Structures
1.
Amino acid sequence: MKSKRAGFSLIEVMVALVILVIGLIGIFNLHIVAKRASFESFEQTQAAYLANDILNRMKLNKTVLANYAGTYGVLGSETAPTSCDKAGVTCSPANMELWDIYQWRWLFSGGAEINASGAKVGGLDSTTACITVGTDNSVTIAIAWKGIQGTAGTTNTTSTCGSTLGTKRRLYVLDTVVDQG
C-alpha cells in the first residue's frame, strides 16, 4: 500500500522563492524609476517657478524691460548690488533691474535652501537662464539645467540656452508679452 505525502517538496518551495524574488526586484526597480521621475518633475516645477518669478519682476519694472535680456549662470563670488528693499534707499529702475537679476540668480544657485553644513541645496544642477526681449515687448525666458540621466535621443530646438549640457539637458521655456500699459 502506497502512502500519500502531505506538504510541499523542496523544489516547489525553491520555485516559489525564485518567483517571489523576481517580483520583489521588479517592485524595487519600479520604486527607483518612480523616485527619479518625481525628482525630474520637481525640477521642472522649480524651473517654472523661477521663470515666473523673473517675469513678475520684469512686469513690475517694465520701464527697463530690455535691460533684463541676457544669459545668466549661477552666482559665483559676485557681490550683491545695493539692495532696493532697505528703508530709505531710493532705487532707480536700473538699480532695481540689477537687484532683481541678482536675487533671481541667487534663487537658482540654491541660496534659498542651505543644509546644516552650509551648502546651497535648493537650486537646479548647472543652471543656465536666457532672457530675450523683442521690440514688441515679447519676452522669452528659457531655463536649462542638467537632469539625472540622458534623454532617449530627443532634442529640443526651441532654445539654444544651456546647449552645452549635452544629452542630460532639460529645458523650460516661457513665451509671453509684457503689456506696457
2.
Amino acid sequence: MPDPRKPLLVFSTCPDDASADAIAAALVDERLAACVSALPGVRSVYRWQGLTERSTEVQLLIKTTADRLDALTARLQALHPYELPEILAVESRGGLTPYLDWVAEQTRDHD
C-alpha cells in the first residue's frame, strides 16, 4: 500500500500572476498544499485544438502529499481559468526529512 504521506510535486501553469496567486493561496489556506512556488515568465509551446500555441505563463510548483492529491486536483480544476489545466503530479524519491515532515504536517486535515 502506498504511503499516504509520500511527498508529491504537482506542476500547473496559469495564464497570469493574479490567477496563480489566487490558486496558490487557496491551496495553502485549505491545507491541500504545504507550499506553492510561482515561477513567472515561463514560455510554453503546446498543441491545442489542432494549432501550435505559444504563451507566457506562470509555472506553479505545488508541494503536497499523496493522500491530498485527489482533493487538490479537484480544487485546482475548479479554481483554474483554463478549460484543461495542467495538473501533473511527480513522486519525490527523497529529501530533507524535517522538510518532508513539515509538508506532511501542513497538509494534514485538521478537522
3.
Amino acid sequence: MASKSQSAERKARIEEMRRAERARERRSRIITITASALVVAALVGGGAFLLNKESDKKAAEKAAVAAPVTGEKSWDAEKLGRNHVTKAVTYPMTPPVGGDHDQVWMNCDGDVYDKAIPDKNAVHSLEHGAVWVTYNDKASDDDVKALAEKVKKTKYSMMSPVQDQKGAIMLSAWGKQVTVDSADDSRVDQFLTKYVQGAQTPEPGAACTGGLDAA
C-alpha cells in the first residue's frame, strides 16, 4: 500500500511540474508575442512619423514655391533677349535679370565672388536657372558673411558685389528680382527655393560649372 501511495504522489508531483512548465512556456510565448507586437507598432509608428514629417516638409516647400515673394519685381521672360553676343549690352535694370548675353556663363555652383563679375556672363547663368545674390557697401559684413555661407551650400547660385545697385542686398533670377535689407529676411530662402532651377528657367538643367571663374 505504501509503495502504491508513494507512486501516486510521485506521479502527482511530476504532473504538477509538467503543468508548471507548460504555464511558464505559455507566459514566455505571451511575453515574446507582446514584445514583438510592441516593436512592430513602434516601427510602424516611427515610419509613419517620418513619412508625415517628410510629407510636411514637401508640403511646406510646395507652399513656398507657390506663394508670391513679397516685393518681388517681374519682367516678361518672353521679351528678354536670349542671343549670344560679343558686343556690350546695356541692361535696363541693375543687376540685370535677363537679356542678350555672352556665350560663356559664370560658374554658379555655389560660387562666391569677392569682386564684381561681368553682367553678360552672369545673365547667362540666370538663363541656366541660377539665382544671383548681390550686395553693395550698405550691406553689413555679418550679412555678407551669412549670405556667402548660404550660397556656398546652394547649387545653381552665385554671389558678387554690385556697387551701383539700389538695394543693400538683392536676389535675381531670370525675369525676377527682390530687394531685402538683411540676410535673415525670410524672403532670401523663399526666393532661393522658388527660383533655383525654378519654372522661370529658360534652360533648366544646363551647366553651372565649366564656365567663367572670375576668382
4.
Amino acid sequence: MAEADWNALIDQTNHRMAELRKAMPEQAKGFGHLAQAAIAPGVLDSKTKELIALAIGITARCDGCLAFHAKAARNYGASREEIVETIGVAVYMGGGPSMIYGAEALDVYDALG
C-alpha cells in the first residue's frame, strides 16, 4: 500500500464495518464482545495484546489490521522500538512477505503519530 493514507483507510474500513454490522447484527455483536475480551488486560496487558494482534496482522497481510492495531498499540503507549521488535518477530514467523508488511506496519505507526 504505497503512499498510504492510513487515517483514510481506517475511516473507510470503519464505514464498511458499520455496514456489515447492520447486515449481521448478532454476529457483529458477538465479534465485538470477543474483541473486547481478547484485548482486556489480564496476565498480559492490553498493549502487549495489541502488539500480538499487530504481528498477526503483518503475517496475515491485512492492511486494515495494520492500521487498527498499530493505532491501538500506540494508544496503549507502545513505543516505536516495541513496534520494531514486534515486526522482527512477525518477520521471523512469516518470512519475506512479513518483512514487506512489517515495513507497512512501521509506516502506519509513524504516520499516526
